[in-house]
Amino acid sequence: MTLIDQLQSQLQKLPPELSENVQAKLQQWDEQTALLTTVPDYPELLLASWVKVWTSSLFVADSCIRRPEMLFDLIESDELFKAYAETQYAEKLSKLTDESEAELMVSLRRLRNREMVRIAWRDLAGWATLEETLHELTWLAEACIRFVLDFLYRQACDKFGTPMLTSGQAQQMVVLGMGKLGAYELNYSSDIDLIFAFAEDGVLSDRKQTTYGEFFSKICRKLVKMLDETTADGFVFRTDIRLRPFGDSGPVIMNFDGMENYYLTQAREWERYAMIKARQVAGDEYTGPQLMKMLHAFVYRRYLDYGAFEELRSLKYKITQELQRKDRLDNIKLGPGGIREIEFIGQAFQLIRGGQEKSLQNRRILEVLQRLGEMELLAPQDAEQLIGHYRFLREAENHIQQYQDRQTHDLPQDPPVQLILAYSMGFSDWPQFKAKLDDIRRQVHDEFDLVFSLSKQDKRNLEAESIWAGHADDEELCLQLLDLGFSSAEEILLQIREFKKSPAVKRLTAKGAAVLDRLMPQLLESVRQVENPDETLKRLLRLFEAVAGRNVYLSLLYENPEALTQLVKLSAASPWICDYLAHYPVLFDELLDTRSLYEPLKKQALQAELAEMLADINIQDTEQLMMVLRKFKHINLLRVAAADIMGIIPIMVVSDYLTYIAETIVERTVSLCWRIMTDKHGAPPNTDNVSIGFGVLGFGKLGGIELGYGSDLDMVFLYDSKDTHALTDGAKPISCSHFYGRLGQKVMQMLNTRLLSGILYEVDMRLRPSGNAGLLVNHVDVYEDYLRDNAWTWEHQALVRGRFIAGDPAIKTEFEAIRNRILCMPRDHYSLKKEVREMREKMRENLDTTKAGEFDLKQSKGGIADIEFIVQFCILDQAAANGSLVTYTDNVRLLDGLAQIGTLSEPVTEQLKRAYCCYRDYGHKQALQGDKAVASEEDFAVLRAHVERIWQQVME
C-alpha cells in the first residue's frame, strides 16, 4: 500500500486548500520510494504525524523527497522519536573523517539538514516541548562551531605553529555566542551572532613571523565561511560577527586587553544590553572564564544602575521608530507586541538590578520573567502572562521559519500559507489564529509601554523649570518662588545658585547634568507640598551636593517620582534623614518601595534578611562581610526612622526595632567570627556551632531594650571552658583562653572597624570585670566571683539591666542564674541608698552641662537618670525578698513589678513611666532633628517636678 493510501483518512480532514499540495508531495514521495529496493515499515506514531508535518513544512517534505534514505535513517535509528542529550550532536560530528575543508563543508551541511528535518518534525508533530526545540537548535549550532574551530585550529597549528600562553600552555581562541545562541534559545532558521577573542598576543616562529592576531584572524574568517557559505548542499548556520567591538569597522578578533579597554572606555549602553546573553560556546576553556568575568563586570554594575534607564529609553525610542515602518507591522519579532519587546522588558531590569540581584543574572528570558514576578518588580500575573505570550510567539516564529527554512519573522501574506501557519499552531482558520495573535501582541505592547512609560517629570511645572534654569530676572524668579510657596524667596534663589556653582555639580558629566536639569524642577514642585518648603529644600540641596558625583542616585529619583515624594516628606520632617542618606547613599533604593520603607522588620524577619544577604559571601572575606553587615544595619535603621518620622510606630516600638537590629547583628557577628576562628584554629573541646562556649551580655539601653538611633552598645563577653589550657582541634591549635580572647577581639573588630560605610556600633566594654584594665573576655566563674566579691554598687545597678544577647544558650542559662544570685543578695537598705545617691550626684556633676533655663532630659534633676536610679535602687533593695523583680530588664516592666509588690504605689509608677516615655520620645525626635536631648526647663516642668518629688520620697 502506498503512503498516500495509508494517509487518506487524515487527508480528508484537511481543508481543501491544504489537501491538494500535501497530496502532491506524498505522490512525489511514493514515486521516489517506488524506485527503491527496500522501504521500511512506517510506525503508527510516524503515520499519525505525517500529514500535519508535511502540510506545515515544505522544507521537511522536500528534504525527505530529495533524500528518502535520510528519513529512513531517522526512523530506523529511532532518533526521530526521542529527544537528544546535549552531547549527542558532538558525538555525531566526531564520526566525520573528512580531511579537506571542502569535504567537511559537504558533510556538515548534510548533517545539518538531517538534524533540522528531525527537529522540525518533532516540533510540528507536538512531540517536543518549546524548550527541547530551542535547546536542540542551540546544541546543534554550538557543536558545529566547536567542531569546525577544532578542525581549523589543528590545521593552522600544523601550518604555522601553535600560539602559546606565557604560562607555557597552548593557546586557543575564545568564541562567544550572543543573543539567542548564548541563552540556549535559538530559533529554527536563526543566524548565530559570534564574537571572537584571544588571551595573549605574541609571534609564531614560522617563516613569516605570523602574529597571534593574524593566526586567529585567518581561523575566524574560515570558520565563518564554513558555517555561513551557501553551496549546492545549503548552509550550516548563517553567521553574523557585527556585534564585535567597533562593529564592521573593527578587527575580526581582539585580544583580551583590547576587549577590556573597549568595553571600559568606548562601549555603548546597547552593547551592555547585548552582552547579557553572552556565553562562551567554543574555544579555550582555560582563558575563556577570564574573559567572561571581565564582561560580567561590564554588564552588571555593583549598584542599582538606574542611569541605564536613559540609554534604554533611547533604545526604546529607536524600536518605536521602527514599529512605525509598514514592513514591521506583521513582524512578530520586531513589530509591535513582538518577541523583542518581551526580551527588552526583562533585560532592562537585568541591567538596572542585576548587579545586586544575582538571580537576575540569567541569560534565559523565561526564567528572568519568572523571577521578576517573584520579586514583584512585575506584577506576578503580568509576568505569567508575558511568559505565556513569549511561548506562543516563539512557537509561531519557529513554525513560520520551518515552512521553508527561511530566516523570516513576517506573517505570511498569501492566504494558503496563512492557513498553513494557523493549522500548524492548532487553529481551524486564519482569522481565529490572527485574533489570538493580535490580542497577545496588544497585551505585550501595553506592558512594554507601561514599564517604559515616559516619567511624569516630562510634564513638569513650567514655573519650577524657569526657576531652575534662571529664565527670568531675579525679581520675576522671586515672585515665582513665592507662588510655589517659599517664604524666603531671595534666600532660596541664592541657595539654588550656590548649589549650581558647587564643585560637585560643576564636575557632573553631560549625562549627569541632563538628569539634574530634569530632576530639579520636579523637586521644586514636590517641595512646595510640605509645610516647611524653605528648610526642606536647603536640606535636600545639601544632600544632592553630597551625592551628585554618582549619577545613579539622581537618576533613581528622576525615574521614580514616588521615591522623590517620599524623600521630600521625610526630609521635611527630619534633617537626620538627609544626613544619613548623604553618608550612605546606597539607601536611596529603599525609597522605591513604600511598603518596606515604612514597615520595619521584626526579629525573625531581620535574621532571615541578613542570612540571605550574607549567603553568597566567602567567610574569609572579612571586609565584604563587614560591608554587608553595615548595609543591613543602614537599610533597617532607615526603615525604623521613616516609620518613626511619619508617626507609624510609637516610641516604645521604635526602641524595640532598634534593639532587634542590634541583636541580629551581634548574633550574626558572633556566628561569623566563630566560623572564621574555627576554620583557622579548630574548635575548643566539647563545642559545636551552637554550643560555642561564648556569650555576649548587653547592658544599659541594649540590655533594657531601649536603644536610640545613635546608641552605643554596652557589652560584656563571657566564655565557659572546663580546662582553659586545653587546645583547639585545628591545624593551628591554641589554648581555649587564647581562642576566646581572640574571638572577642574579632567580634570587636567586626563591630568597631570604620569603613567607608561607617562602623556598626560604638562598643563600650567598661562593665567587664575591672573595666578597661580587665580582660576582654572573662570566664563565667571569674565573672560571678567578681560581681560577688569585688564589684561596686554601681556595677550591680548596671546588672539590673543586664541581658544575654548572643552566643551559646548554655552561657545564657549560666548568666541568668548568676544575675539572679547577685541581684537577690541581701543588702543594707541605708548603705545601699547612700551609695546609689552619691553615685547619682557624682554622675550629674560630671555629665550635666546644661546652662540656665535648659533641661538635659537624661542628666538634669528630674530626668531619665533619676528615674533609672530610683528603679535600680528599689530592685537591689527588694530583690532578696522578691525574686520575681529581676525577671525583666526594661524600666517600664521593672516599674510594673515594683508596683505589684507595693514598693512603689501605682500612681507613683504611672507618673514615672509617663515621664520616662515622654523624655525618651522627645529624645528620639531631637535625634531625628540632629539636635541633643536638651529642652527648655519650661517644656517639662510638670513631669520634672513629679520625678524630683518621688526622688525625695524614695532616695532622701
Could you please describe the fold and organization of this structure?
There is one protein chain. The relative contact order is 0.04. The strands form 3 sheets. Strands 1, 2, 3, 4 and 5 form a 5-stranded mixed beta sheet that branches. Strands 6, 7, 8, 9 and 10 form a 5-stranded mixed beta sheet that branches. The N and C termini lie far apart (119 Å). The chain has 5 domains: 83-299, Beta Polymerase, domain 2, CATH 3.30.460; 308-453, Up-down Bundle (Four Helix Bundle (Hemerythrin (Met), subunit A)); 455-586, Four Helix Bundle (Hemerythrin (Met), subunit A), CATH 1.20.120.1510; 593-823, Beta Polymerase, domain 2 (2-Layer Sandwich); 829-955, Nucleotidyltransferases  domain 2 (Four Helix Bundle (Hemerythrin (Met), subunit A), Up-down Bundle). Helix content is 60%, strand content 5%. It is mainly alpha-helical and 956 residues long. Helix 35 (736-752) links the parallel strand 7 (713-719) and strand 8 (763-764).
Unreliable spans are 454-460
DSSP strand count: 12
Provide the CATH topology of the largest domain: Beta Polymerase, domain 2
Average predicted confidence as pLDDT: 90
| Overall helicity | 55-70%
For the record, the count of structural domains works out to: 5
- Please work out how many helical segments DSSP would assign: 43
CATH architecture title of the largest domain:
2-Layer Sandwich
Distance between the termini: 119 Å
**Approximately what portion of the residues adopt beta-strand conformation?**
5-15%
CATH first level of the largest domain: Alpha Beta
**Radius of gyration (Å):** 37 Å
Shape: elongated
Structural class: mainly alpha
Major sheet description: 5 strands, mixed
Q: CATH homologous superfamily of the largest domain? A: Beta Polymerase, domain 2
